[in-house]
Design brief:
This protein is of the alpha/beta class. The chain has seven helices and seven strands. Helix 5 links the parallel strand 6 and strand 7. Helix 2 packs across helix 7, helix 3 packs parallel to helix 4 and helix 4 runs parallel beside helix 5. It is globular and about 45 Å long.
Length: about 240
Amino acid sequence: MNKKNDPCRLHDGEARRLLAGARWRRMVALGEGRADRRAEPVEGYGSACWPELVADALREGEPAVACLNLLSGRVRQAADIRSRQLPEALAFGGDLAVIQLIGHELLSPGFDAGTFRTELVRIIAPLRERGYDVLLVDPFDLTRSPGAGQLDHEVVRARQRAQVKHSRTLALRHGALHVDLSSSGPVADAGMWDGTGRALNGRGHAVTAAAVVRALGRHLRPSSPGSSPAGKVPRP
């Protein structure tokens, strides 16, 4: 896919327009990611990871935006985000937390949906209590990932649909935002994964960042009356 013709990427000037007036100044990214913080490069997209790209988009309006990237290859379950990353995020004292939900946890034969959802609440609630606006990012269609291996795709789809529905419900309940990358379709899903089949490549990170920026932009300029002030999510 040529970057110039990629409908899933941010276009020139789009981030500045979407995020104009945003008041977020300290962003933290949580979830699974490469330990070296660089993605497998893709021609035309580079190797930047999505937290860096989102922070750069915010900096177009406010150069002083700080970003704490807690993505780690050690994270394998939602419980790891809570135990390893959440304390650092709370100590950071930020105002925007973007949580990349761990798709490959759903690929485990021993996946426990109830435990996953409980841990997710235990991540979101403390962040909201500390004044963070929270955005949940559900992963791309995992059946298109080479890392899915021999797992039954119908089982994976069912798990992912259920998780997306729950993420959306939790976001509404806790006054958070939600992005579902699995609904992006085959144009977005093609060529997202690196050689391991378990991590996003440069294009995957660029498309993720675009989806996050667009979700923040929709929040800043909602079409419905009685919306919250720019850059702040209403408290539950």
